[in-house]
Amino acid sequence: MTDTPQIPFARPWITDEDRQAVLEVLNGHILTHGPQCKSFEQEFAAFLGGGHCVSVSSCMAALHLSYLHFGIGPGDEVIVPAQTHAATAHAVEWVGATPVFVDCDSRTGNLTASAIESALTSKTKAISVVHFAGIPCDMPPIVDLAQRYNLRIIEDCAIALGASHQGRHVGLFGDAGCFSFYPVKHMTTGEGGMFVSRHEDVSQAVARLRAFGVDRTHTERTVPGMYDVPSLGLNYRMSEIQAALGRSQLRRMSAVLAHRTALFDRYRKLVGELPNVRLIDTDAAECRSSYYCASVVFEGEYAHKRNEAVERLNTAGIGTSIYYPQPVPRMTYYRNKYGFVPANYSRAEHISDHSVALPLGMHVAGGDVDRIVATLERSVTESAGRKGLTR
Ligand SMILES: Cc1ncc(COP(=O)(O)O)c(C=O)c1O
Prior knowledge:
The chain is of the alpha/beta class. The protein is built from 13 helices and 13 strands. 37% of the residues lie in helices and 14% in strands. A hairpin with a 2-residue loop joins strand 6 and strand 7 (168-169). The longest helix has 20 residues, at 253-272.
């Protein structure tokens, strides 16, 4: 056993205020269909600086609702980044449309307008944009492209709460924005998510779709229990318990973002001094990253040292993860269904196979970054000559 403090990759930040907020709901009688979700939606829109929000059970639910609402389905193609979570593509698959995977930019891990344009066909109906590692995509040329080709933009902002481009929060560029409150994210509701649209009628329709397709909420019913169902729907609602936790967490988001920014600056400095490793990063002045994680990519003669580094870091009590473990088109389901041509996704593969995501969050202190990077440095310098596995 060692006394050296453990640093998990991520840890939810739960305070006494959070516990109190949840207890107050439990001490009352309204566990769903109540005021907490309504207030959370309004406060989240205020945080984003616009839009109409709909609280949902997960980011995946928000993505699914987006494609359902916009009528995207069989015979349609949707541009999906190869370097993302499976949920981004699954939402497209569940509506029966075809994901067309596009490789990323190697520096940011994001899609670019030119890569998207080269994958468009007459069947393309939408572009799924993911703000990778919290770095906002360069949205103006993507919005311009979507307008020229009459395409919907669905923004997957699961790991980008707090990210903005030219002062506009991500999720407010396209037709829909989808956020995640899974425990390792910037803020959590246990499980949970938020749908946002700049158009009130879209959010109202999505709110009905998320709740069985019923035509009136509990408060809108003149006769209790009386409603009609004019359309198909799902149950993707968030509970009052989750919303109370979300509201309490949201109040601390500026402190969370400030801390993450300071930690990332330290990573940027220290990792910048190491040869053959680089951070997934941007220096574009118009981009404000949400600094979801510090993903370090091993290059050149260090390219195959990722797994040794993971082992060394974990042994030293430093948690790690990989964003994302494989380009989605290489995952078994998608490979079996659509085939996989490695040459088409070489940049996404490089990130998946040669990177490690290092801890970032409120549980990490400034000095921890020095220890993490020193351990990383030792792992690559002391393992010269040995080759690790890539998968
Ligand atoms: C880019 C991206 N999209 C979607 C999701 C799924 O989010 P949720 O678990 O809230 O459905 C994740 C989860 O990490 C993600 O990274």
